[in-house]
Write a structure and sequence with these properties.
The complex is a heterodimer of chains A (219) and B (269). In chain A, 28% of the residues lie in helices and 27% in strands. Chain A is of the alpha/beta class. The two termini of chain B are 44 Å apart. Classes of the chains: A alpha/beta (219), B mainly alpha (269).
């Protein structure tokens, strides 16, 4: 379970969020541009520090202002897909997807065999040796998703992951996500601009406005 | 109408040929004169003179060390400078650019007033028996001072243009800051850093004004190639020409390297 209670003064308003996402569950987080969606994800990932509050995941405290706990991003094991995909342009698709395993010191052959199932699922097998800079927008998003899933994250953060995706691959992504999130039993926060276009079960919606969760259908 | 068009077109062509020709000739003729005044035999015979060899070795050595110092200190400095907001950042920006507009003689005098025997720091160093002015160390300090902007500005711009989400993604995937720098930041900025590095080396190699003020013109000790040209002008004109030709050849080599690097970069992007 992901348990968040954070606040931080932003330029125009105070971001103040209390949010709980159970394992195996999707929280679809909607809101306008500049409402604080990406800032919230960055806080959970450890890229921005909250001023007050705590972030806990499955009994691990990532951040606690009171106890002065702040685990660096590389130790949180969070699968984070950025809005712009941010695939590393100088690396191949395979090198992108196995980057997290390489950072953990895993050897090349082990890395590659580790992700074959994943790359096949995402339909990237024929692109493994392509330089990521040459991919289309949708392919980049798939690579970014695969790269985040390859580290077997304890939590998934997806910032508009399907914006650049061809509609025909939405079901592939939804299936892949569904299976991983269910089998690993992890919480997932999915940020969206409009309504979610992915067909996911076990999800609930909430809306963030000027840094506050406004409307939520959480049970 | 058609004649008018043809006329203006040929007029444009004439202006283009004339102006480009003037630029090219003005820049090329001095170099031509340099080669005209020498001959291959003369060049090769004065090339083996100890004065020339000493100056060449000293120049290459000091410029290389100055370049290494600038890279080792300047790379992290430029990185953090471009990634952080801190009080006085705009002042540091100005300081980084300062050596570009400061006359080298002023830079040399300023260095002398700081590190010289009577200088602000120098007087204390002198108490411990350390003298910097008029040594090879002073040569390199002058080079670092005047040449650093070429690398620092380039590095600052490259790091500033790099999308931070690459580094943030890499961190969230489990990479330490140092691993991110080595596997993401450096490869994505390498060509640009390299061309900044080459420019820095070239500037250090040609450094004259600051060096002569703070390091003097001692053959074999602080006499780099530009200083040796100046020294040889008093009597041994041929040696001056030979060293000049050497510097021209090295400069050409450096420009060639840069153009190859930027071409390769163009292909990748």
């Amino acid at each position: 379970m992901l348990d968040i209670s954070v606040s931080r003064q932003l330029r125009d308003f105070e971001l103040s969020v209390d949010l709980t996402v159970k394992t195996g569950e999707y929280c679809i987080l909607a809101g306008n541009n500049g409402a604080g969606k990406s800032t919230l994800l960055n806080m959970i990932a450890g890229l921005i520090d909250p001023e007050k509050g705590y972030i806990r995941s499955n009994g691990t405290t990532f951040f606690d202002a009171g106890d002065r706990i702040n685990i660096p991003p590389e130790e949180r094991q969070i699968g984070y897909v950025f809005q712009n995909a941010a695939v590393f342009p100088h690396l191949t698709v395979a090198e992108n997807i196995t980057y997290g395993l390489r950072a953990r010191g895993m050897g090349k052959s082990l890395r590659d065999s580790n992700v074959t199932g994943l790359t096949k699922r995402l339909g990237l097998n024929h692109l493994l040796d392509c330089k990521a800079a040459q991919l289309s927008g949708g392919q980049k998003q798939l690579v970014a998703l695969g790269r985040a899933l390859a580290i077997e994250p304890v939590l998934l953060l997806l910032d508009e992951p399907y914006r650049a995706l061809d509609r025909t691959i939405h079901p592939i992504v939804a299936d892949c996500l569904q299976e991983m999130v269910t089998s690993w039993d992890i919480p997932c926060i999915l940020v969206t601009h409009q309504n979610s276009e992915l067909d996911l079960t076990n999800c609930w919606n909430c809306r963030i406005h000027d840094g506050k969760i406004e409307k939520s259908d959480a049970r | 109408m058609a004649t008018h068009f043809r006329l203006s077109k040929s007029l444009g062509l004439a202006v283009a040929v004339l102006s480009i020709g003037m630029v090219a000739a003005y820049l090329a003729l001095p170099i031509v004169a340099l080669f005209f005044h020498s001959s291959p035999e003369l060049f090769l015979s004065s090339l083996s003179e100890p004065k020339v060899i000493d100056a060449l070795v000293l120049s290459l050595m000091t410029s290389t060390i100055a370049m290494v110092v600038i890279v080792l200190v300047g790379t992290p400095a430029a990185y953090f400078h471009s990634r952080m907001d801190y009080p006085g950042k705009s002042i540091v920006d100005i300081l980084i650019d300062l050596p570009l507009v400061l006359p080298p003689a002023v830079a040399g005098l300023a260095l002398l007033l700081l590190y010289g025997r009577m200088g602000l720091f120098g007087q204390y160093l002198h108490m411990f028996g350390i003298d910097i002015a008029f040594t090879i160390v002073a040569v390199m300090m002058a080079q670092v001072f005047v040449a650093s902007p070429f690398y620092l500005r380039q590095a600052k711009a490259l790091f500033g243009q790099l999308d931070p989400s690459y580094e943030q993604t890499a961190r969230s995937l489990g990479a330490s800051p140092l691993f991110v720098f080595a596997t993401i930041v450096l490869p994505l900025t390498f060509e640009g850093l390299l061309s900044g590095l080459v420019m820095t080396f070239a500037r250090a190699l040609g450094e004259f004004g600051a060096t002569i003020m703070v390091a003097g013109n001692l053959p074999g000790v602080t006499q780099t190639m530009p200083l040796a040209i100046y020294g040889a002008m008093q009597g041994d004109f041929n040696t001056a020409i030979t060293i000049s030709i050497l510097l021209v050849l090295i400069s050409f080599g450096i420009m060639a390297i840069i153009s190859i690097i930027t071409k390769r970069r163009g292909l990748i992007a």
